[in-house]
Design goal:
The structure is a homotetramer of 336-residue chains. Chain A has two domains: 125 residues, Rossmann fold (3-Layer(aba) Sandwich), CATH 3.40.50; 161 residues, Dihydrodipicolinate Reductase, domain 2 (2-Layer Sandwich), CATH 3.30.360. Chain A has eleven helices and 13 strands. Chains in contact: A-B, A-C, A-D, B-C, B-D, C-D. At the A-D interface, β7, β8, β9, β10 and β12 of A face β7, β8, β9, β10 and β12 of D.
Amino acid sequence: MISVAILGATGYTAVELIKILLRHPHVRITALTSREDGRSVDQVHPSLAGRLSLSLENLAPAKVACRAECVFSCLPHCASAKIVPELLAAGARIIDFSADYRLDSPGVFQKWYGEDHPDPGRLGNVPYGLPELFRSEIPGATLVANPGCYPTSAILPLAPLLKEGIIAPEDVILDSKSGVSGAGRKPKMTTLYPECNESFAAYGVGTHRHTPEIDRVLTLFGGKATNVIFTPHLVPMDRGILTTAYLRPGKSGIRAKDVMDALRDFYAAEPFVQVVETLPATKDVSGTNNCRITARTVGDRILTISVIDNLVKGASGAAAQNFNLLYGFDETLALI
Amino acid sequence: MISVAILGATGYTAVELIKILLRHPHVRITALTSREDGRSVDQVHPSLAGRLSLSLENLAPAKVACRAECVFSCLPHCASAKIVPELLAAGARIIDFSADYRLDSPGVFQKWYGEDHPDPGRLGNVPYGLPELFRSEIPGATLVANPGCYPTSAILPLAPLLKEGIIAPEDVILDSKSGVSGAGRKPKMTTLYPECNESFAAYGVGTHRHTPEIDRVLTLFGGKATNVIFTPHLVPMDRGILTTAYLRPGKSGIRAKDVMDALRDFYAAEPFVQVVETLPATKDVSGTNNCRITARTVGDRILTISVIDNLVKGASGAAAQNFNLLYGFDETLALI
Amino acid sequence: MISVAILGATGYTAVELIKILLRHPHVRITALTSREDGRSVDQVHPSLAGRLSLSLENLAPAKVACRAECVFSCLPHCASAKIVPELLAAGARIIDFSADYRLDSPGVFQKWYGEDHPDPGRLGNVPYGLPELFRSEIPGATLVANPGCYPTSAILPLAPLLKEGIIAPEDVILDSKSGVSGAGRKPKMTTLYPECNESFAAYGVGTHRHTPEIDRVLTLFGGKATNVIFTPHLVPMDRGILTTAYLRPGKSGIRAKDVMDALRDFYAAEPFVQVVETLPATKDVSGTNNCRITARTVGDRILTISVIDNLVKGASGAAAQNFNLLYGFDETLALI
Amino acid sequence: MISVAILGATGYTAVELIKILLRHPHVRITALTSREDGRSVDQVHPSLAGRLSLSLENLAPAKVACRAECVFSCLPHCASAKIVPELLAAGARIIDFSADYRLDSPGVFQKWYGEDHPDPGRLGNVPYGLPELFRSEIPGATLVANPGCYPTSAILPLAPLLKEGIIAPEDVILDSKSGVSGAGRKPKMTTLYPECNESFAAYGVGTHRHTPEIDRVLTLFGGKATNVIFTPHLVPMDRGILTTAYLRPGKSGIRAKDVMDALRDFYAAEPFVQVVETLPATKDVSGTNNCRITARTVGDRILTISVIDNLVKGASGAAAQNFNLLYGFDETLALI
């Protein structure tokens, strides 16, 4: 049994992670932390009533490392990187949900997050926890950067196409749509029910912090800097992300079949990526760790459409997948 | 033109009221107040962009009364009654959305609201602004107590049946269901989108503050104290209230037809109450000042089902209806 | 491995059942039937893509019984009872989702369903598959009547209270609210998205076919005929049922604590029933086989509030629970 | 008073139109047609109960023209053009909601709609009823082609920018998102509540019939053929369309301010188009005839984001606006 702790356990990714880990035969949850909260976990997350008897605690990193071999950090950016060094020093392995270790440059981090990175020395040496693309780097790691939800939905369809030169890296438009759970569980006017129900809107146009994360990973595959145009939108639903990508062929003569074949070949052995003929809906993958992708050609453009559950493949499912890789378990354990 | 002010103009009832008043040919909105807000009204309510050019101001009652003949107070309970005396003294007429003047006893108010009433002397002398039942009292008033949303949905079907002895006052069960806008616009965990979307729950069982308001008004019609069992529930939708009432016949031999006839007779001349054969849905009255009612007999019980839009007939539409009565306009002006 | 067939596999309960059974270590799904459909299951249910490779077939009962030891029938009422005799004769065990074997009287069936029962001789000899109340009858059975969704939500809170005399059987009011998946997957105007979204309505007032099913089971526990007043309502959400019950004490001096204690004692050992202090929301049990119950006293009434997921504990989860009992597996297998 | 008829009165655009026309001081609705329906209008549209007493009738065009000076046709494509000639011959003026007269080429119509146009001679001579762009052509017309919902949301932001050369016509990507009412009121599996609730999907990728309509009108303004990439998506909400357009500058040195200024100048006098600084949400214009537009620059791209209510500015509100122009009324009558 691996003892695990979850830091910042009051939010939606945390409760989703707890539910996944409760199904895992080799996991014991030993600590849940929160700065403010001393309530039992089922008061904070009523859906856990009768399934887990733990209280949230305000624990110092050293205490956490005493209790748990593996730590899932659901803390916000900067908060995570402030305690990661101490946790690592105390011997814990960490799967970090925040953006802190997803970029490789302290300068880029500073530009997009507006703060100096608390642990700049590690940037560039932390595997990006998207196993479909970086599987070999994960098992030996002590720290894994769990990907952002939008980046997962955008990178999975595009990376294989960039790698094969099927699409050009210079002109990538990503129009993404997400359910409201992606905005977190802190009460805010913008995510109040009567504000976002029966409404649809864009937000963070040109400024969303997932942009440099997408650019960084796509650049690795395209061999050349992408500068994606990324526009997120809020959909009146709990969970799900759909990303419509508008792309240019990277060479002449590309047909829709070539795009689909490249995707199918690349993901043939992947348990969580399905390349499908029909247009996927977010509901098709709701509650699962799957990503579904299809492609079309329209005029002189290639389009890909991809769907994930932002709380599962976009966060907690990916974290469990990384956990399985870290500890040598079957990658699908607790996820199918 | 009547100059009007709206106090506490940041919420859902205020914006609904503004939209109604903008259609009113004899109204000019001259002041919108908020304790904290100096923003323009279209920043606070984007749907008003281009329709109204006013900023929210933190105005003292005297200032308000200088600007407006009629004041709509959307302030919370106790806040309203604290400034009503000064507004009245300054010559304003007031339509109060709060619960402050709906009860007739300071003791009952203290019991349910947990605070001493700031203006106890007026209790019992303020007309209850449900024109269908108290029309004659309104035109001459300087202060009107605008009814609560749940009470409106419960009292309209029951008052005529109590008056005629068709139902017994001793055994009244009200199971009410409301859209989320009824919970206000202040960010709260319980009304965050992912908390109440795809969910249904009861709240305030046995303790909701609309209970004594319903009891008070029904007692006037039944001639004898009712002690309603009132259970509110939250529906994942923006607006609408449906109340299912479980009642006992007040005399023997009552058939469904008798109940429907009594309702039809009572409301025959009312522009905003429709007694219908089919089961009404909240959507049938959404955005309107209508109340739809039907009745059935099941076993030894009489059931009524009534629907309103909580923001219109349950709040701002009723307020406009009262305004029309106060100033001698056609009661339906701006409401049809 | 137990080979299982699912009859009528195009609907919402069928796909929920398939997902549960795919997690079951001792089940192999060998046949899915549909009268009209020859499509692969992932065309009919896109969320199953990559998880199950079967096509829907129009199979005669004899063929079904050749393929499967256990048959789950998701056929409509009367369609099920028309083929059950042949399936039983061919040696299959059957878990029937329809209402066909839930009542014990052909006359009552005829009255509520408007058709003569196709297999009247078996009525009264088929266990009602609510294991929490009828567990001992299930393991030896060849045919189990899987309970209705509303009845499950109503019977679980009330049966223990009737048994202990805590509530009176003569005056039971059930106000139920269900998500739209309960209305099935056949395109109908009433369940079209823009018809039921942003709306709330009652339906089947006094005439819903689950009424005699509730009465029959409650009568077994109350020792005396109940004639429940049952009112279902449609909530704009996919899944979930909440039932608010208005009850009278069965003896004097009953306090809220007595009601809660009786419920807690009765369900102390049950894995899927949680008696909770706080008011439960349907979301707390969404996607689970749990039923959560609480009780309150208001005035002279006892109230219970219970929630289930209509597709899980209200249908397919209960069916899997019954399956586990039939074959001697741990009752919670594939369900936690 | 102008007598008006509505053909195909059972759908969502028809009921929206009826509600608008009931507020119009110079309109009397004299006929509502439906091929199959003889029900009263309030049975078909319960929200009209008590507001309009008409039954739906299966009327021949000659009969319609006897009853009404102006005919609103909500019939599907081809059905409309089959009766328009007879209605015109009988002296009626027609506002046609179908696509029949929006294109100017029978060949293009045949290609996208798969049928020969029933009235090809009129194509190219019917004004496109988007008053903001074609106002001068409408007053004298006997037949107006009411625009499609998606085209309205796409053309209003782009036409002024093409006209000024601010954007290039060769590379226009339109990512549109619509509420479910746009799919009509005929029961279909795809728009069943549990299918599209809590889900988001694209449809008609590269094949949606609004594409040639958008191309045709934009070409008029860009002076050169556009071949837009248009991708519609379905949002789990009743009403609203948001279109995110990804554009290239038509000349060098274009700043965001230039784009906004061009839009502001173009629409300065328009009552129903608001150019706004903040990102508009569909809810901001819900229930109104407004279109709100903003623009941004991101990287080397210009983005516009526009919102309308698909049932109002995208259909019935635009029709009423055209009606006002046809008959010389204030264009905003019944619409503000």
